[in-house]
Amino acid sequence: MVERHLVRGAGGALAAEHAESPLARVDVSAQSGAEAGRHLQLALKFLEEGEALIEKDPVQASEKLYKAAEEAVKALAAALELPEAREAAERGRWSSQLLFDAADSAAAKLGAAELPLWWRAAWVLHVEGFHEARLSGERVKKDSRYVEALVDLARKTLARGL
Asked: Where are the beta strands (DSSP E) in the chain?
């Protein structure tokens, strides 16, 4: 599993802690890098907001955590210049299928076999936690670690490639 490298900075905001990673350097174009960076910033924002809501509103926390994972997958797709990112740009939107495919493609390219499972945990938060409102705060808290791992992988990947 990915080690936790997101730390709370001044004012409680999540910040990236720089640590060595076994990930190989990823080459990205300036445009892909900028897009990936925007998605990563959103992922960090949604992760922080989701974690803050777990105890008081697990339904909204579930959706924020899902959005953090979604933005992390988009960041990886842009940074790795995956075909799914190009297809989403051509269509003008991401579909659920493209997000699942991008998670699989990023996992293969990075050698991160857990990534699709982390994405699927986020999908459960989206469907069962938000749409169906069936998950307890305790369950959301347990599953938030998978979203955090996904966001952390995106952060590490972008740190290596930019």
From this structure: 6-8, 14-16
State pLDDT tens for residues 81-140.
999 999 999 999 999 999 999 999 999 999 999 999 999 999 999 999 999 999 999 999
pTM (two decimals): 0.81
Neighbours of 114 (CB within 10 A): 15
- Predicted confidence band at 12 (pLDDT cuts at 50, 70, 90)? low
- Residue spans of the domains in the chain: they are 28-161
Contact 158, 36 (CB under 8 A): yes
Can you tell me the distance from the alpha carbon of 156 to that of 59, in angstroms, rounded to the nearest whole number? Answer: 29
Count of beta carbons in the 10 Å neighbourhood of residue 77 = 31
Q: Which CATH class is domain 28-161?
A: mainly alpha
